[in-house]
Amino acid sequence: RFGPDPKGVNIFTADGHFSIMYARPDLPKIASNDPMKPTPEEANAITLGSVAYFGTYTVDEGNKTISFRIESSTLPNQLGRNQVRKITSLAADELSYTNNEPVAEPAHYIDTAFKRAK
Question: Label partner for 70 (CA 20 to 30 A): which of 20, 79, 99, 117?
């Protein structure tokens, strides 16, 4: 969905809030330069190639999971859901997890890895 070299960011705060954004690096520019007037093709490519959401999170160290309670999202189907990710790797500067509960059908199980920003 986000291409072979996706761009993204996860922000986790100490008080339990998060923000996530992923996007394809090749999203089209809107020819009209007006975000309210994309062509249908531009709107479709942007919708399919990006997602952003935020809310609160909790970590279950025993089960090695992180749970996201989504408060707002560019994918409204996520609203109000508690989504659990299985942590597959955790180091000082890297976090990897698997999404075993995708919203989209057919299911796309996504492995995600992030490196700490310097």
Answer: 117
Say if strands 50-60 and 65-73 run parallel, antiparallel, or are unpaired. antiparallel
Q: Which residue has the tokens 């997602």?
A: 51
Specify the 3-state DSSP secondary structure of 3: coil
Task: Give the pairing of strands 50-60 and 82-91.
Answer: unpaired
pLDDT digits (tens, 9 = 90+) for 19-54: 999 899 999 999 999 999 999 999 999 999 999 999
User: Among 78, 74, 75, 76, which residue's Cα sits nearest to residue 101?
Assistant: 78
**pTM of the entire predicted model:** 0.81
Task: Provide the Cα torsion 98, 63, 12, 74; round to 10°.
Answer: 50
d(CA 49, CA 28): 10
The DSSP-derived string for 27-96 is PPPPTTS-TT---HHHHHHHHHTEEEEEEEEEEETTTTEEEEEEEEESSGGGTT-EEEEEEEEEETTEEE
Q: How far apart are CA 51 and CA 70, in angstroms?
A: 13
